[in-house]
Amino acid sequence: MLDVSVTNASGARYRGQREMIASVQKALKGHKVSNAKVDIVLLSDSRIRTLNKQYLKHDYATDVITFPLEDQPLYGEIYVSLETARRQAKEYQVTVVNELCRLAVHGALHLLGYDDAEKKDREAMATLENKYIVST
């Protein structure tokens, strides 16, 4: 069973919950995962900055942070900054829903073992993100 949920802890209104869930489920199915629990949590820039500083020692807001909690069955948390997603959507000239889906899938790919430290890895992840996003 693929249990994907979205929690809005940002304090702001948003759209795209259904699309984020469907995109992450598509990524999991595309990697032959049939049993997983993934929690997507939307945060403000200030809250994601706090997480980034506390856990990754980076003192800045970021767009997405992923915490793998269990391997079998797959269980993890994906934290997405709604504020950053809105800015990036404008920058990339896509809808906010599309950008939220991209960030959720990016987090899911990290849960699946992908890394984006090298340019070639970032490019491979971007290709997969585009494959799994269900929103335009």
Could you describe the 3D structure shown?
The chain is an alpha/beta fold and 136 residues long. The protein is 49% helix and 22% strand. It is built from five helices and four strands; from the N terminus they run βαβαββααα. Strand 3 (64-70) and strand 4 form a beta hairpin. The longest helix has 16 residues, at 96-111. The two termini are 26 Å apart.
Shape, please? globular
What helical percentage do the residues reach? 40-55%
Sketch the major β-sheet. 4 strands, mixed
Q: What's the total number of strands? A: 4
Give Rg in angstroms: 14 Å
What's the arrangement of secondary structure elements?
Elements: E1 2-8, H1 17-30, E2 36-43, H2 45-56, E3 64-70, E4 74-81, H3 82-92, H4 96-111, H5 119-132
Parallel strand pairs: 1-2, 2-4
Antiparallel strand pairs: 3-4
Output the keywords.
four-stranded mixed beta sheet; 5 helices; 4 strands; 136 residues; alpha/beta
Task: Give a quick precis of the structure.
With 136 residues, the protein is of the alpha/beta class. The protein has 5 helices and 4 strands, in the order βαβαββααα.
